[in-house]
Write a structure and sequence with these properties.
This protein is of the alpha+beta class and 495 residues long. It has helices spanning 43-58, 100-119, 158-163, 186-202, 212-221, 227-230, 236-245, 257-268, 298-314, 330-334, 338-343, 363-376, 381-395, 400-403, 410-413, 424-441, 461-471; strands at 7-14, 18-24, 30-36, 68-74, 77-83, 88-89, 122-123, 132-135, 140-143, 150-151, 318-324, 347-352, 449-454, 479-486. A 5-stranded antiparallel sheet has the order 1-2-3-5-4, with helices on one face. Strands 11-14-13-12 form a 4-stranded parallel sheet.
């Protein structure tokens, strides 16, 4: 990449991930620089940088979207160069409510820009006031920051998108939290747009929460107050549009940018005053969306949810087994209990066994708890330190036994000293004991644990023994284990 030569004129934004500067080149041409904060970015950060550049190139020259000029290395750091926009981030309103006539201009322009993005099969995933620039003199609106965007037709797996939380918690859709059994699509951007509109009109986001877990639960299960209830000067009709955008179920939201624009035109124009406003009247999707719901599984979902509540209320371990042929939806069924888990501030982790790795001991369990460590690493430094103390207290000088199979754990507790080797049976017994102690750390009233192990027909004998140990451990509480296996792949000698 080419080395960039600019003079910094103004620092606009600084975070742990990137900084935004207004700068000029030797010809006095002003530009905006987005500079990665670290000089030695990880592989995933470089991929993300390249992905953003590729998407911006695809969106180049479209009105309403930040225009990319190029990329390179500025002062040793990866940098994107943008055409200078005179607009200011809507986040700078600092809680001030935007006048209604200004809101309509911003809202229509933002929806029109989002429509262009979606037409190119791109999902933004981080629509919020900070990522919308507005210039009062010209009325121009620009959407910025495509760092977490992705192309619908890309090879990037949707389940990976769901497993990592991108975007800002105050504005993300329920499906972006990874805690509901739904994929991310264009309607996720509509939810974030609704949360943004809510903030612009009321001076606050739809939900106020004390911590990330509360915020996630609010998006999944709580209904926001209508903007017109918070502020009587906000018309009821615009409140209807915003509440529709904020529907929990994607099928209940707007399905198209055209439908949103039609309704915004309707309520902001005098020509329709004689007619009754019907929200979503002209909202028809040009995409074919198969509803991501489970049908005919109400009784089974109720059993799983009730069993979770029994575990949560009594503290005693519970176990459920889901059986059936391949492809009948066993995994999808297990994930239907995301909502009550979020309400209890619990963790749902999953691991699957594979046909050609069934000789690897504990493979499914190790996958599940590796995922849990990745979740913990996204929490605040204070929370991570709290987990470090609890894990160290439980494992003591035997923590190396766990870090040998879950290396990511070292990111929380650091590198551990080796432990003495024993004979094979004693080694096995010690591993069972220490790994159970490790699991015990995460099974509490404040954070109950749901462990889902899929494709158990390929599990090794050691994993089955571990499950048995967990279910008969009198000191273990607040854990719910869900197992699934294929009945059509059972053999007579299957353990």
């Amino acid at each position: 990449m080419q080395t960039l030569d600019f003079i910094i004129l103004e620092t606009i934004f600084v975070s742990s991930k990137h900084s935004i500067f207004r700068a000029e080149d030797k010809h006095k041409t002003k530009v905006i620089l987005k500079v990665l904060s670290t000089e030695h970015p990880s592989e995933s950060e470089i991929i993300r940088f390249q992905n953003e550049f590729r998407i911006l190139e695809k969106l180049k020259s479209l009105n309403g979207i930040a225009e990319i000029i190029g990329s390179g290395i500025f002062k040793g750091k990866y940098t994107l160069v943008f055409k200078d926009s005179k607009g200011e981030s809507l986040e700078t309103s600092n809680g001030k409510k935007i006048p209604l006539y200004t809101f309509y201009k911003i809202a229509k322009s933002a929806v029109a820009a989002l429509d262009k993005i979606h037409n190119l099969k791109i999902i933004h995933t981080d629509i919020k006031p900070a990522n919308i620039l507005y210039e009062p003199q010209t009325g121009n609106v620009e959407i910025i920051d495509f760092g977490s965007s992705f192309e619908i037709d890309s090879t990037f797996p949707v389940h990976e998108i769901n497993e990592k939380i991108d975007g800002s918690l105050a504005y993300i859709s329920p499906e972006q939290t990874g805690r509901v059994n739904r994929s991310v699509d264009t309607r996720s951007d509509y939810y974030s747009l609704g949360a943004t509109f809510y903030h612009l009109l009321t001076g606050r986001p739809p939900f106020i929460a004390n911590d990330p877990m509360d915020m996630i639960y609010s998006h999944i299960a709580k209904d926001p107050l209508s903007p017109s209830v918070l502020d009587r000067s906000i018309p009821e009709n615009i409140s209807k549009i915003i509440i529709k955008l904020l529907s929990k179920d994607p099928e209940e939201r707007y399905q198209s940018s055209f439908g949103i624009l039609y309704d915004l035109d309707w309520i902001s124009s005098d020509k329709y005053k004689a007619e009754k406003f019907i929200v979503g009247k002209k909202d028809f999707s040009s995409e074919f969306h198969i509803p991501q719901k489970l049908y005919g599984r109400q009784d089974e979902i109720k059993k799983l949810v009730n069993t979770f509540y029994n575990m949560y209320q009594n503290g005693k371990p519970e176990l459920s087994v889901i059986t059936g042929n391949a492809g009948v939806g066993k995994s999808a069924l297990a994930k239907e209990i995301y909502k009550p888990i979020s309400a209890a501030r619990g963790y749902f982790i999953s691991g699957e066994y594979e046909q050609y790795t069934k000789n690897l001991p504990f493979s499914g369990l190790i996958k599940a708890f590796s995922n849990l460590i990745r979740i913990l690493l996204t929490e605040t430094p204070e929370e991570i330190d709290n987990w470090r103390q609890r894990i160290q207290s439980q494992l003591g000088d035997k923590a190396r036994i766990v870090t040998d199979v879950i290396p990511q754990l070292e990111l929380i507790i650091g590198e551990q000293l080796p432990v003495a080797s024993l004979d094979s049976q004693e080694n096995a017994n010690r591993f069972y004991s220490i790994f159970q102690a490790f699991i015990r750390v995460f099974c509490t009233l404040n954070h109950p644990l749901v462990l889902f192990l899929d494709d158990l027909q390929w599990a090794d004998t050691a994993s089955l023994q571990m499950i048995k140990n967990l279910m008969t451990d009198n000191s273990l509480r607040y854990i719910y284990i869900i197992l699934s296996y294929r009945t059509n792949e059972q053999t007579l000698n299957n353990p």
